[in-house]
Amino acid sequence: MSNRKVGLWMYKNGGGKAIEKKIVEQLKEREIDTSTNLDLRFARASQEGIICNNVDMLELDLFFSYNAGEQTIAQTYMYETLSRYIHTVNTYEAFSISEDKFKTNIALSLAGVNTSEFFLCHREQPEYMVEKFKEWKKLVFKPVDGWGGNGMTLLESRQSLNTLMPFLNQSDIRHIYLEKFIDNDFTDYRIDLVDGEFIACYGRKASEREWRTNITSGGSVMLREPNDEIIDIAKQASNALGMDIAGVDILYDRKREEYVVLEVNGIPAFATPKQEKMGLDFNDKKIEKIVELIDSKTKYKA
Fold it and tell me: What's the sign of the alpha-carbon dihedral 24, 269, 250, 174?
């Protein structure tokens, strides 16, 4: 019986290259061959197959896509196609839901998971945004498909609302997506899960001049211990979206006195070498569980 074949597309910065090497080595120990650097942006396709870096992607047993920073429309388009015919981690369906804040919160709400109060309307109906501002007093405008805090705007005065309106009129966004501001201490929990199993927890803290905890917005990583309730909420959120791998961001709402899922990430980062030095030591466990997941999904039927 020939070896199973798996394709990988991993990020390279922040220690990603070393992590990829460990994944490849551990897969080899399980007699699973790998092809790396499969950036689907450069794939070409015909009736003869989908070729990327001299690999026919349709002949793979599984494609593992783990690069949040270099995604393109062309890459995700081909990712969606592949997910129809071979195993992908995450599935494209789960990945695409996690990339869209509105679709994520709809899925979480229907599954009974606490989220921030949210609202969506077409961009040609800005009067609804004004009504929500009057109702909530303090809210956050977000692009439905943004990441890292990019494009988010805190609306807490009529002036901030008036400043946003011209931007909306000139942009090409289709929807206005809003969330009620959560009264929190400007820290969050990030729960890492693989195949429904708890891997790690750490926190992020906003800088003194910011309200966003995102690292790209000036936030910093902090050591943090979760409780059973937080881990259970994260698992519920991951299951609601059908995620194989998830990083669930959770805030504590001081007004409602309950934990709230803020976001579910389909490509949660490994700890960087700098973060490992400060005590985040979950990388090896995460790699082991990802390898087990790939092994399980690609086992041939007897």
Answer: negative
Token pair of 124 as six digits: 């040609």
- Per the DSSP assignment, residues forming a β-bridge with 179 are 118, 140
Type of residue numbered 188: D
Task: Give me 259's structure tokens.
Answer: 């934990």
* DSSP, res 60: -
Contact 3, 33 (CB under 8 A): yes
Q: Are 291 and 64 in contact (CB under 8 A)?
A: no
Give the span between the Cα atoms of 244 and 59, in whole angstroms. Answer: 22
Please tell us whether the domain made up of 4-90+289-298 is placed in CATH 3.40.50.300. no
> Rounded distance, CA 75 to CA 152, Å?
25
- List the end-to-end C-alpha distance of the chain, in Å, as a whole number: 11
CATH of domain 184-265: 3.30.470.20
Q: Where are the domains of the chain?
A: 4-90+289-298, 117-180, 184-265
Fold that domain 117-180 belongs to in CATH: Dna Ligase; domain 1 (3.30.1490)
pTM over 0.70: yes
Read off the pLDDT of residues 56-94 as tens digits, 9 standing for 90 and up.
999 999 999 999 889 899 999 999 999 999 999 999 999
For residues 250 and 229, what is the distance between their CA atoms, to the nearest angstrom? 11
Length of the chain counted residue by residue = 302
**Residue 60 to residues 32, 96, 153, 256, 289, Cα–Cα distance (Å):** 11, 21, 42, 48, 20
